[in-house]
Amino acid sequence: VHFVLARGTTESYPGTPYSLASLVAQNTTLRTNYENIIYPAVSEDTSDSYFIGRAAVGAQMTAYARRCPQSQIVVLSYSQGALIVGDALAGGGGNSTLGKATPPLIPQDVAKRTIVFYGNPRHVQQQPYDFGTAGVKLVQGKYPRLPSQIRTFNERYSEITGDWCNVGDGVCSPSEGADALSLHMAYAMDYDTFAANWVLDKINAVRFR
């Protein structure tokens, strides 16, 4: 199992996704390793961090899949990391901050076993892969996806994706009101145990309690 970790804005490597990767690794007999997506992880509003990160996801994941085609790739991402992962997979851009709409950067034949988003800026409401307190709420991320991007993502990845969003987190559910930083920073504590079991199911490993 190869974990691809995409950290959030201002986090140092490996960031929030590492605790989830560690929990999964500790509870499977499968061999595991990980790599970080290498990108600045500074504000996408005032820098080219998003564009660098999106390109890095496409390049790194494609290169690894070609190099190790038998590995199971598990992508774990948080905040801006979820933004760049989702946009590399489904196509990016589509607004004034993220630029013009672009096609996916990762070929469909690049095998991915599991995708986890925590605090996803492009969270889409009422999807079968939505988890967290926003799972049954009509909330959208601060950068709503274009309908064509939603279709592409769902056709390719809906069965292997888990998207965790807390209602009130100003990144994944800004339509709910004020930006609540504490909710945006609570994903590992709130959901790692559940998400780890979910990932273990996806990689056909033994669940833990």
Major sheet size, sense and barrel closure: 6 strands, parallel
Unreliable stretches (pLDDT < 50, length at least 5) are: none
Tell me which CATH architecture applies here: 3-Layer(aba) Sandwich
Counting copies of identical and different chains, the oligomeric state is single chain
Reported by name, the CATH topology is Rossmann fold
What general outline do the C-alpha atoms trace?
globular
List the domain count as a whole number: 1
Helix count equals 6
Beta percentage is 5-15%
Pfam family, one: Cutinase
GO molecular function, one term: carboxylic ester hydrolase activity
Keywords: Disulfide bond, Hydrolase
Protein name: Cutinase
Could you characterize what this model shows?
- The chain is an alpha/beta fold and 209 residues long.
- The chain has a single domain (2-202), classed as Rossmann fold.
- Helix content is 34%, strand content 12%.
- It contains 6 helices and 6 strands; from the N terminus they run βαβαβαββαβαα.
- The longest helix has 19 residues, at 49-67.
- The model has no long low-confidence stretch (mean pLDDT 92).
